[in-house]
Amino acid sequence: MTLLIQSSDVFKKTELHIKNDGSYHCTPFKGNIGSLPTLFNQDGEFLHEPNSYLFYLKAIKGAKDLNPCSQALLKYYQFLEVEQLKWDHFPPIKRLKPTYQFRSYLLKSIKSRELAHSTANHYMNHIKNYYLWTMSEGYLKIKREQEAPFKIEFINVNNLGMLAHIKPVFTVESSDLRIKVPRDSASKNIRPLSPLTQNALDLLIYSLPYASEELRLQVLLSIDTGMRVEEVSTFTLDALHTATPIAESQHRYEITLCPQATGVQTKFDKQRRIEISVDLLQALRKYQASERRLIRANKLYTKIKQLSVNEVLLNNKTITTLEQCRRHEPLFISQQGNPVTSETIKARWSELRIHIQQINETFKYRFHDLRATYGTYRLNDLLEANLGTIESLELLMGWMGHKNESTTWKYLRFLKRKEIFKVKFGILDSIMHEAIGDENE
């Protein structure tokens, strides 16, 4: 069965040497791009085409996360192996082509509930892009249209954004391999929102004392600001120092998130300003100067000082992470002196969720749902304060860092359907005061 193995560091440039015994030795000297996912077939042979594609994505396109693509390629090549198909053989008959057979296999997996529609569609899209690359690089040569791996299609999509009156329809490129993802019948969204209800929020606040101080602050940071888990894990002291009061409010501040300026790893590397309550801001500043955190920070700086000595023994990812910490000190650090990762936060959240489920087994929220909680409750507060709908959505879009306005609009559609949000309340501020307000007084 095809295997996926994480390689050691890969270099763009190497030198070839001939040893005294006549053997060849390859020495890397420039362009370390870090570890790469690498595919091998059941006989342990290196799969040249997919691995070259993964190298292209990392070295040329600068892809940061190859996991989705590598998992799709692994699934595809395992399927080819089982069905004894060749990746580059495309008979004129459509149903005999490996790409369409793989699509049928994914549809069967969806029907048996082994795979979600969205996951299957992502797999198929990665395979489509892989074949487009192999054709452009000459690995796959198509002599006639009947032997193509798929057909390119152009689809008209209705524009649901604020500028829909100017351009009601836009066109996107797709293929006949795509798998349609069913939309939620009520929200019309592919991924319906799952913000915590008031009861769930009360239960969470009640259970936070059972969590570590770091997780408690990370949870509140996501609820109060709408930050993504990757942004929470890479939150820095430089970002904390940018806090400035909002002129229109005595209780909320704004903070700058930016990979270059403050070291916070935002989606799409975009800079944005987020809002934060004064209660949480004071709690973060208090934690910054706490003995608990300073002990951890000293361990981190010991590792940074040893970086030049141990650099040859460390992988590229570790070196890059420590260099980032040298430029921007992270707020959250593990007991071992390592910067906290998003995976660590998710793991600790899962443990807290298990504890909460002992009280109420229906509590099945993800950490990402805390972001949806912020967006939904905050939009409700803005609308209840009689701010215009467009102005409210524009504010929320900026705070949450949405790339497309249609993403922000789904919060408004959610509010219109839910009776719970028709009651006027400033839920976020009350949560912060209840969770941490007292200890700052």
Explain this structure.
The chain has 441 residues and is an alpha+beta fold. The protein folds into two domains: 3-143, no CATH class; 198-440, Intergrase catalytic core (hpI Integrase, Chain A). It is 46% helix and 14% strand. It has 17 helices and seven strands. It has helices at 48-59, 67-83, 98-111, 117-136, 198-207, 213-225, 229-233, 237-240, 278-288, 291-305, 307-310, 316-327, 342-357, 369-384, 389-400, 405-417, 427-437, and strands at 3-18, 24-40, 152-158, 169-175, 244-245, 252-257, 272-277. Strands 5-6-7 form a three-stranded antiparallel sheet. α3 runs antiparallel to α4 (117-136). The longest helix has 20 residues, at 117-136. The radius of gyration is 25 Å and the shape is globular. 27% of the residues are buried. Mean pLDDT is 86; it is low at 185-190 and 420-425.
